[in-house]
Specification:
α1 crosses α2, α2 runs antiparallel to α3 and α11 packs across α12. The protein folds into two domains: 179 residues, Rossmann fold, CATH 3.40.50; 79 residues, N-(1-d-carboxylethyl)-l-norvaline Dehydrogenase, domain 2 (Orthogonal Bundle). The chain starts with 5 loop residues before the first strand and ends in an 18-residue tail after the last helix. The protein has a six-stranded parallel beta sheet, sandwiched between helices. Strands 7-8 form a two-stranded parallel sheet. The protein has 287 residues and is an alpha/beta fold. It has twelve helices and eight strands.
Length: 287
């Protein structure tokens, strides 16, 4: 089983910087890369806020927070750090061609033994693995938002993913304090396949005028015992990402229950992506 000491996380958005934080907190030297410096600046701000809050709540000592922060380096220059990685975790936009292009590039920058893991929630691990040039060392590593708090990591394996690769990632997930779940490479894997029907049904009710946004979410929170309603969760993930995921599942499965609802399409067309833009199904102050 491959020994992992240094982890490269690509993509400094909500998922990427959260993954980097978890890795660094558990003792791994972690490089966080994004082509856009503003995302790195925001990631640094969010990481520092989390660490400061953890110290205030006595979840960690000031020393532990300082050590965690010291293990994270940030850069826009992928070529400078790719050669040092033992594992690459990709957390960029949920588009097949963009991810495939990145992995082709990484194959020429990283050592042959390096494992590539994608945080995709529904794209084919087998196809991405073929694009990477190292399908036996390619696997899914689907984290959940927020990465620092959510316990599950879904590990879909492609047709060519080796047993050693799966064992390495399962062991890593456990070392990170997470609960790994290995599954087959099917559209949406397990979690996204189930949840997207739930999300879509909630948005369908909104399109029909059966109830309003707050009523739909309150019904699920109070009636089902959830901490957040489906429309709140879509805002948290990002409606642009939600549309990409749902439409991809619809195209791949050909099932009407995955057809993106009009209320989602309309908000994305207007640039209302949820929390990250200040407006989605709800409005958010401070954006």
């Amino acid at each position: 089983m491959k020994e992992i000491q240094r982890i490269l996380v690509i993509g400094a958005g909500v998922m990427g910087h959260g993954i980097a934080l978890v890795c660094a907190r558990c003792g791994f030297m972690t490089d966080l890369v994004d082509m856009d410096k503003k995302y790195l600046d925001n990631a640094l701000s969010q990481i520092d806020r989390f660490l400061h809050g953890s110290v205030e709540r006595k979840k960690m000592s000031e020393y532990e927070a300082g050590e965690t922060r010291a293990r994270i380096s940030m850069t826009t220059e992928l070529q400078e750090v790719a050669g040092q990685a033992d594992l690459v975790i990709e957390a960029i936009i949920e588009e097949q061609e963009v991810k495939s292009g990145l992995f082709k590039q990484l194959d020429g920058l990283c050592e042959p033994s390096v494992i590539f893991a994608s945080n995709t929630s529904q794209l084919s691990i087998t196809e991405l693995g073929r694009s990477s040039g190292r399908p036996d060392r390619f696997v899914g590593m689907h984290w959940f938002n927020p990465p620092a708090l959510m316990k599950l990591i879904e590990i879909p394996r492609g047709m060519e993913t080796s047993e050693e690769t799966v064992e390495t990632i399962v062991a890593l997930a456990e070392r990170l304090g997470k609960e790994p779940m290995v599954c087959k490479d099917s559209p949406g894997f397990v979690v996204s396949r189930i949840l997207n029907v739930w999300y879509n049904e909630a948005m369908g009710l909104l399109d029909e005028g059966a109830a309003g946004v707050e009523e739909i979410d309150r019904a699920i929170r109070d009636g089902g015992g959830f901490r957040m309603g489906p429309l709140q969760l879509r805002d948290l993930v990002g409606l642009d990402t939600a549309l990409l995921i749902t439409d991809s599942l619809y195209q791949r499965l050909g099932n009407e229950k995955f057809r993106p609802c009009q209320c989602l399409r309309d908000r994305v067309a207007a640039g209302h992506y949820g929390r990250k833009t200040g407006k989605g199904f709800y409005e958010y102050k401070g954006k």
